[in-house]
Amino acid sequence: MKAKNFEQQFDDNVDITVLLDLPKAKRVLQEQKRVNVDFPTWMIDSLDREANKLGVTRQSVIKIWLAERLESTESKRPPQRTRSGAAHR
Known about the structure:
2 strands, mainly alpha, 89 residues, single chain
């Protein structure tokens, strides 16, 4: 199936999951890497309260907040030039 037809079916709310090989599916730029961070107890308690209020895990709160902050910071930073002269963020 051509991408145009696939996209049209998606836009038309057709269930496209039958067309996908889900076990082989990958999220682009979403590779996971484990890190360890030490937080003070008061911060863990605050994160847990927020997580309970939102009905998500502590890890989800941390990821969401960090992503929001990084996106905000990146959008304010001017593009950096590489040796080839191309602009990158």
